[in-house]
């Protein structure tokens, strides 16, 4: 199918233009809502053209920066390109791009890290300011002007509804056979007019197949033909396999105790290699008839579906490695029998997550001995990616599992620490912590009881003595003994703390 | 109405006994689910008798401790009495009793602090272990064995369902004219069988007026005739009035900007004097036709209802000062036209809170310059009360407001600090911080932008220079500048930190 066949609405055909022409419609200071979720469905041409335009303006000494709102992380062609030209005044709600991260952590750009389920409603509520432009990738424009979504939905519905002007990218690489995979829920309202979201199982369809949009808002249509860019997963390493093993043992134990049905409850799996390895482990595991209600469909889930182990997966984006993405695109017609893509306010909706009883599995940077989790900050100050949907899932899950290797940087840093330097998931939201060393089941435990199982089950042997010593001394010296701490050395495990101490000593 | 008229079921009449006899049915090591929510509806006789029994056992050198699960905080006759005799092995999910707090913070008893909306489901899921006995206050026993609830619901439905044995206290002080005020929802299920909670407005009735229970589980019925014990509110001080004023100005501003309807959205108001003062402020404010969807009905809300300013309030407990409680009890028949009491998993349900779009107003102990909030810990180690429902509301609210005087202990401690020593509400869950100094609107802001408004608008003038200096130095010296920090002195504002430094120096 050529791109011409994809833009069937005559009025919109007349708005076809180049990416440069479209980018020229975006003015300095604008807030721009872009499509894109974990490397899928982001616009591939306009952000690059815009980055060139910004670069040229800067070269002329003219200020030119914009605010960019997306679904989640995008790709080098968007976050990377705009960060490199210092084009971001503000970025929300999630990113994972090295250049973008560098700009944020050097203090050059502002970044607002928001629960992914909150973003669309904040835009509707007027909490984020005015949305000037939307730049959204779609797979096709129907004759009546409705739009066939591409490989991610994210906040697209909201950007299309809220923006003054809309720029479409129509990507003919996306197999239009995925028509029917999407479920765009138009039933959301602002309070006090909200009603229940009527999803009772991961496969329930409650919305439309297409975006509906006022065509008069569309100011440009840009044709593209390029695939989503994703990084391959590394094959699971020994640690990931150990982590996966501990989780599978735990889930099997929960089934035996009658606390979980035989086919589990719907799975949510975070981003990253460890999460993918756990899904890989399920292929050989005893569980059948699985479902997923999650943010992103990774390779591991696709494998489960293909192996007949997973019946259905609901997500907001297809985030696959290059080979898997190709296969998925070719099989779109088949895949839509077992995959549904929804707006992220629905894929991550607290109401639905709690109702379905999700088993949530997410990565972490540090966990402390009392069960608080840091998912976002290195050394308490530098952003890694962002909280993403992990808070939506962890808080409302049936089981909230956090996983990590016990050390980072080749063993130089313990991921289990006395006190985390930043909290994304509080002690009230973490049921299980698991490392390659073992699993700590924290349900119903007091802080001191948690400290014992986290240190003994999860910490690396090299760091156990230090953690035990901290906890023992805290038990004796802490002013309060509900959550015993030595405030002046709670961060001493951190290289950043040591460096600061050293630099003060040298002063 | 005498107590005899209150126990109409013949089988249950035959189980009437003394509190001592009933307490004798509770054995060492038992997990006991008790009624009680913020000083309302707690059992008044059996816990005291049990405390005596425990004390006597300890005097004989016999071990005797129990686990106690409640709705929320109770009263001296329950938490105080059992703490004094060291009778708690474990307490959950919330307390606010001085003796209990002392036991927890000295490390003598374990305390598990849980989101109030999570407790009932954790019990159902089997996450808390086995529930041996329930001790629940009710207002009457109907002829068919159903039970008329008293002044709080909390987790009573769940305790009655889950416990092996049930001890009832029938309190004839409670006006049975409140029959019809309660709404006990029996539609909850375990996943995967859950369905939407069909509440679309604070006044929607979705359940039964009475608890249903298998009468064969009831092992004792104890008659009581005593009022709920609540502490009076202190009249609003100057700071509380200033805080209330800032919040009312902000809400009026939001109405003018079209972000809030004229009659607001349903209010949730936390415990404490400041919260009560804000409600007091609304009486003179411009808002009409208010509603509340909250945990506890305080004096301030009752006044709003009586003044015709508030149309309807939904809560799980009536937590009034002594005079207001007396008036409420006398007017029960009238009050039930505008008040509904629900189980706490419904009053605090994330699904319902998000749907209704609550304006949540809660107290805090410390907020940091980046918008993280500590509601529970003094100096990071000693528990004050617990997170209560503040997380349920803050995370899912339309507007999440946290309020505090800018200093504590007569100005000796700044409640605005560089880094909180414990996080209950993360930077992602806090829209507004307000002190008597002013209000910081954090919506959509990055961490560094938040720091500026929190320091300038909320900090006390005595602490502003120190906070500014910290932030400025952190901007220069912090390894990462997304959330700039000096890890080795982030807690230096705390007396506990200073004390630890001093004691190390003396070593
Ligand atoms: C927390 C998170 C970064 C872990 O990612 P991961 O790929 O599973 O884990 P890794 O072990 O590869 O860690 C990622 C990086 O952080 C570093 N890191 C991890 N723990 C660290 C620590 N305690 N100190 C310093 N660096 C650490 C790793 O060394 C690695 O760095 P590199 O990229 O320079 O090699 C990731 O899960 C995340 O961004 N989570 C938040 C969002 C989320 O949960 N999304 C899914 C929800 S739906
Ligand atoms: C946070 C909370 C303790 C504040 O209570 P409050 O009555 O509004 O506030 P106060 O200013 O009276 O503070 C209570 C005590 O904490 C102390 N305190 C407050 N801030 C402090 C600080 N930064 N450092 C040390 N002590 C502090 C006060 O001095 C006071 O101590 P006292 O009882 O010895 O006089 C209370 O709101 C709470 O328990 N919140 C958590 C649960 C919750 O939010 N429930 C409602 C949800 S539905």
Automatic annotation (TrEMBL), chains A, B:
Stretches assigned to the Acetyl-CoA hydrolase/transferase C-terminal domain: 334-470
Any one Gene Ontology molecular-function term assigned to this protein's record: hydrolase activity
Domain Acetyl-CoA hydrolase/transferase N-terminal, first and last residues per copy: 14-223
Protein name per its UniProtKB record: Acetyl-CoA hydrolase/transferase family protein
Top-level taxon of origin: Bacteria
Mitochondrion in keyword set: no
NCBIfam families in the cross-refs: YgfH_subfam (TIGR03458)
This protein's UniProt keywords: Hydrolase
InterPro entries associated with the record: AcetylCoA_hyd_C, AcetylCoA_hyd_C_sf, ActCoA_hydro, ActCoA_hydro_N, NagB/RpiA_transferase-like, Succinate_CoA_transferase
Taxonomic lineage from the root: Bacteria, Pseudomonadati, Pseudomonadota, Alphaproteobacteria, Hyphomicrobiales
Protein family according to the UniProt entry: Belongs to the acetyl-CoA hydrolase/transferase family.
């Amino acid at each position: 199918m050529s791109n011409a066949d994809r833009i069937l609405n005559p009025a919109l055909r007349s708005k076809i233009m180049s990416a440069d022409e479209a980018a020229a419609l975006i003015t300095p200071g604008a807030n721009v809502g872009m499509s894109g979720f974990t490397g899928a469905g982001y616009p591939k041409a306009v952000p690059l053209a815009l980055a060139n335009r910004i670069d040229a303006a800067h070269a002329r000494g003219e200020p030119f920066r914009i605010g960019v709102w997306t679904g989640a992380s995008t790709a080098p062609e968007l976050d990377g390109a705009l960060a490199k030209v210092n084009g971001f005044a503000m970025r929300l709600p999630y990113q994972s791009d090295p250049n973008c991260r560098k700009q944020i952590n050097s203090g050059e750009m502002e970044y607002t890290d928001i629960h992914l389920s909150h973003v669309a409603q904040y835009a509707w509520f007027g909490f984020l300011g005015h949305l000037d432009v939307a730049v959204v990738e779609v797979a096709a424009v129907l004759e009546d002007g409705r739009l066939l979504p591409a490989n991610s939905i994210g906040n697209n519905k909201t950007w299309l509804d809220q923006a003054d002007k809309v720029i479409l990218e129509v990507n003919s690489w996306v197999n239009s056979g995925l028509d029917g995979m999407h479920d765009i829920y138009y039933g959301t309202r602002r309070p006090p007019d909200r009603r229940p979201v009527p999803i009772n199982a991961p496969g329930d369809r409650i919305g439309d197949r297409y975006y509906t949009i006022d065509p008069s808002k569309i100011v440009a249509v840009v044709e593209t033909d390029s695939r989503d860019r994703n990084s391959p997963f590394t094959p699971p390493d020994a640690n990931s396999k150990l982590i996966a093993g501990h989780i599978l043992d735990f889930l099997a134990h929960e089934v035996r105790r009658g606390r979980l049905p035989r086919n589990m409850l719907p799975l949510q799996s975070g981003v990253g290699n460890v999460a993918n390895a756990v899904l890989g482990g399920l292929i050989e595991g005893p569980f059948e008839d699985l479902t997923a209600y999650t943010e992103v469909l990774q390779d591991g889930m696709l494998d489960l579906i293909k192996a007949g182990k997973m019946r259905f997966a609901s997500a907001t984006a297809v985030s696959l490695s290059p080979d898997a993405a190709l296969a998925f695109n070719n099989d779109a017609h088949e895949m839509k029998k077992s995959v549904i893509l929804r707006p992220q306010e629905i894929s991550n909706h607290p109401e639905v997550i709690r109702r379905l009883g999700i088993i949530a599995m997410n990565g972490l940077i540090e966990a402390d001995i009392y069960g608080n989790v840091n998912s976002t900050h290195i050394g308490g100050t530098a952003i890694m990616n962002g909280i993403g949907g992990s808070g939506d899932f962890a808080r409302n899950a049936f089981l909230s599992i956090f996983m990590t290797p016990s050390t980072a940087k080749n063993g130089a840093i313990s991921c289990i620490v006395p006190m985390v330097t930043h909290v994304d998931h509080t002690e009230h939201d973490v049921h299980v912590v698991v490392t390659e060393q073992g699993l700590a089941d924290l349900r119903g435990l007091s802080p001191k009881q948690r400290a014992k199982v986290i240190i003994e089950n999860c910490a690396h042997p090299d760091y156990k003595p230090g953690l035990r010593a901290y906890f023992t001394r805290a038990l004796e010296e802490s002013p309060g003994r509900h959550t015993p701490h030595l405030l002046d050395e709670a961060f001493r495990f951190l290289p950043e703390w040591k460096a600061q101490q050293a630099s003060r000593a040298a002063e």
